[in-house]
Amino acid sequence: MLNVGIIGFGLSGRVFHGPLISAHQQLNVFAIASSRKQEIADAYPQALCLDSDTLINHPNIDIVVIASPNSLHAEQAEQAMLVGKHVIVEKPLAITSEQCLQLQQIADQTGKCLSVFHNRRWDSDFLTISQLLASQNLGRIHSYSAHFHRYRPVVKQRWKELDPQGGGVLYDLGAHLIDQVLSLFGKPDKLWAHLDTQRDGAVTPDSFDLQLIYPDKKVQLSCNSLMVEPGPRFQLHGSKGSYAKWGMDPQEQQLAAGLSANAAIFGQDNNRSEIHLAGQALLHKSLIKGNYLAFYDNFVNAVTKDEPLAVSAQQASEVIALIELATLSHQQQTICSLN
Asked: What domains lie within the chain, and their CATH numbers?
């Protein structure tokens, strides 16, 4: 059994990491660092409630999960690895590419596992899309679009929406969309971006449009906080057919409602999913069950069996590099090259 310490008990620590760690047979929630002491005591009465420094240095903790504000990720990850802990960082890995490189070097020097919780790779729709592309049923993909639209007209008083260092939807939801595209298609040649603050009182970007330019395909990623009817979440078009998926993967909602990740219905997505091959009728496309526990399965195997990490620090660094380039593209109002 590996003991885990979680830094932060906001949405990420409370809804995702705590429940997933509790559901894993080889992991134990040993300690949590947060000011929400009563909530921790109610949810995890066996866990210690510590400050972050004490948690990182506790001799009984094997893995530190960093679910603190984005601006603290690099400092806390470095601190944890230097005292011998394996580290999982809630995305993003850090705010800058320079910080990401430093963390990779420390992981290499210490021999500790460093991964980033890009859990959306294990969404039901994304697993289905990955399988669909592997089957080549759609032929050569020439168009891919994905969005993270929501209707949230009121700016919440929380760091994700107020912190100029790593706040806003590009670092939050954009990191997921970019990571998914990189895992499917690799790096683009060029990028164009437009960022916006659409809501009254917004101080960090709450909307973005990205175009990733490949030699053989067009990729569009977007997020809008004032979208009542968002339309299909994913759309793919290829030389032999098209695929579209509506609605969100259910795992976040299920975890928030208290459903165990070990439940039979966990990850089961019943949203609209359609494939239309050339010359054939439009058909429902069954969705693979989402499986966020697979991230932790992989990390445990990396720690105990030297299995390669599914989400490496290098991969997470590439996400940050594209976020930085998107910011530059918006500032200069131009297409930016990755070369």
From this structure: 2-117 (3.40.50.720), 123-291+322-332 (3.30.360.10)
